[in-house]
Amino acid sequence: MNSSSSTMSFVLSQKGKPLLVMDDYVFRLNKITNTTKYYRCENRDCTATAHTDLNNVLLKVNANHSHVIEPEKKEIRIFKQIVKERATKESTPIPKIYEEESTKNDFKILDYCYFTVSKRDDSLNKARRLETPPIPDSQIFGIPYLYTRTIENEEFLCVDKFIKRKTRILLFASNEQLKVLFQNSIVLMDGTFSTCPKIFDQVFTIHSIKYEQSFICGIGLLPDRKKSTYRFVFEELKGLAVRMNLVFSPSTIITDFEHSLAEAIISEVILSDFKLRKENQKNIISFSFQVATILVATSILLKPCTDKYNTLTYLVVIVVMKVFV
């Protein structure tokens, strides 16, 4: 075979090793010296070889292959390489990557690809995990850029600040979620402590009502349950609203009866919005705790029907609106 007329390209194996593709034959890298790379045909029974310099310029080729050419193998290797690259660089589900890339390939090789590639989900998941940062053991850790963006490459990590030394707050929300939150007057808040990364104290969620449905508008990782922490969250939400030329000023906030959160709501939402004088603060606090007590009592009374109909959210909203009116 004339080396000058040979078509040459390179692909990667599943282990990341370079493969030389020449005229649809695949060569594996056998060894490297100071000046030359030595390749041999991937078929173990074939004695065909090729040599290139360190810049991958072809120097010599012995193309006496002892087997027929299989051009599908090259296409399948390229397919595998693309799938693996996307699996390690994107957060797209692996089955979806298969589906998207399969539509770009020749349908004649898709059946073969299905049996040879789809069975490698485990290896692709392993490769993806190797690219995933290890779970940190403190709140001082870096967040890769990929994990701060949405699938559409929009900002998702909207708050990442240390409020004290080694005490960090993270708040995740897209611009669309924040817009829904700031444009609605009813806000629901809740936290979970049992299902939370060990280095944080709780996963704090913020919801809003739209189309008579509850939509999640923010997910926060909070270091504790202190009033100052909740106040910091409200201050950050107000700042985000200003940045979007909107206002965070809900007329109704529904949450469970947590003392620190209730005080933060009163000081950051009620008192800041209406700028009440100090002599009226005690009455407002008393009134707010009455509202919270009504919410708790209502949730207890409605517990049997919530298990069956899941109507607690809407019934509680009605109660709160009547109280504030």
Automatic annotation (TrEMBL):
Every MULE transposase domain range: 187-267
Keywords annotated in UniProt: Metal-binding, Zinc, Zinc-finger
Superkingdom of the source species: Eukaryota
GO terms, molecular function: zinc ion binding
Domain FLYWCH-type: 10-67
Keyword Zinc-finger: yes
Signal peptide location: none
Protein name per the record: MULE transposase domain-containing protein
Source organism per UniProt: Rotaria socialis
Record lineage: Eukaryota, Metazoa, Spiralia, Gnathifera, Rotifera
